[in-house]
Automatic annotation (TrEMBL):
It comes from Alloacidobacterium dinghuense. This is LacI family DNA-binding transcriptional regulator. One of its GO terms (molecular function) is DNA-binding transcription factor activity. Keywords: DNA-binding, Repressor, Transcription, Transcription regulation. InterPro entries: HTH_LacI, LacI/GalR-like_sensor, Lambda_DNA-bd_dom_sf, Peripla_BP_I. CDD domains: HTH_LacI (cd01392), PBP1_LacI_sugar_binding-like (cd06267). Residues 1-55 form the HTH lacI-type domain. It comes from the Bacteria.
Length: 336
């Protein structure tokens, strides 16, 4: 089976078949669909390596994430991959596990495979690694950490809106002793969320108790340990806001082990709205950050930059919103 037979069945030239396979925007949607049907009918599988050598394009995008064990990232990967397939692209996934050395290995893999663009959904990227990619004119899309420039786009999450809504929800329930379990200080997104929380308390004229500020690791064990420290305080918080849902889930375990009830004794709010959050006991109130929207914007940023050549990247805003479930309730009537 070869490209000539596909062209004959689709009633187009071999060049049109090649353009369709390479995702060119010079082929009309109707013609591209006819070519794809012919490819499927004939069970034609293009040699992607040879195609990359011939065209200089790999039809391969890199996607770098921090932690594959955090459900936030598999959901993001799934959405990004679905969009890529719709556009005739493949995805090379790399997981850094928050390790800068692994990040270097990930970037090296991307360069070896001659990717057409890289979506960097993590904060561990150093300046020299960005330069390694940029000097080869590889389009880049970052999450929260970049300033749009030639070939570089940024997905900018509005964390403040979601955190404001979470704090306002808690204050409307009578809570004033509100704690925050932040993520690792090394992560840009964790620092942004922490700052947003502090600013929100200030706007609501709530005094920040430094003992109520804890740091986790964006994983369940970090949330568990941070919550244990909060529960050991002489005066503990009546509500806790966390930097992500995995932290909240770990905190919920610690609360339950102390014989306390959520939300009767203490309210808790997560951040991300991973699928698991609606199945905790009780279901977790959380701030929704759409992985589907992040994936769509990241792919659009790479695709638009690549198709337009060395164009300047853009800023792609992402909204957040509060999802109220059953882990929040009125401030306890009496102190324990």
């Amino acid at each position: 089976m070869n490209i000539k037979e596909v062209a004959k069945l689709a009633k187009v030239s071999t060049a049109t078949v090649s353009r369709t396979i390479n995702g060119s925007d010079k082929v009309t949607p109707e013609t591209a669909e006819r070519v794809r049907r012919a490819i499927e009918t004939l069970k034609f599988y293009p040699n992607t390596y040879a195609r990359a050598l011939g065209s200089g394009r790999s039809s391969l995008y890199g996607l770098i994430i921090s932690d594959l064990t955090n459900p936030f990232f598999p959901e993001l990967v799934k959405s990004f991959e679905e969009i890529a397939v719709q556009h005739g692209q493949e995805v090379l996934i790399a997981n850094t596990n928050y390790d800068p050395h692994r990040m270097e290995v990930c970037v090296s893999r991307m360069l070896q495979r001659k990717v057409d663009g890289v979506a960097i959904m993590t904060s561990e990227m150093t300046e020299h690694l960005v330069e390694e990619l940029a000097v080869r004119r590889i389009p880049l899309a970052f999450l929260d950490t970049a300033i749009p420039q030639k070939g570089v786009s940024n997905i900018l999450v509005d964390y403040a809106v979601g955190i404001d809504a979470a704090v306002e929800h808690l204050t409307s329930l009578g809570h004033r002793a509100i704690s925050f379990i932040a993520g690792p200080v090394s992560l840009t997104s964790a620092r942004i969320r922490k700052r947003a929380f502090i600013h929100c308390l200030e706007r609501n004229r709530i005094k920040l108790d430094p003992h109520f500020m804890e740091e986790g690791n964006h994983r369940t064990d970090g949330g568990y340990e941070a919550m244990c420290r909060l529960l050991d305080l002489k005066v503990r918080p009546t509500a806790v806001l966390t930097s992500n849902d995995m932290t909240a889930i770990g905190a919920m375990v610690a609360i339950s082990e102390r014989g306390l009830e959520i939300p009767k004794d203490i309210s808790i709010i997560g951040f991300d709205d991973i699928e698991l959050s609606s199945f905790t006991k009780p279901p977790l109130t959380t701030v929704r950050l759409s992985r589907q929207e992040i994936a769509k914007m990241a792919f659009r940023a790479l695709y638009n930059t690549y198709q337009s050549g060395a164009a300047k990247g853009a800023q792609y805003p992402i909204e957040t919103s509060l999802i109220v479930r059953q882990s929040t309730g009125p401030k306890p009537a009496t102190k324990r």
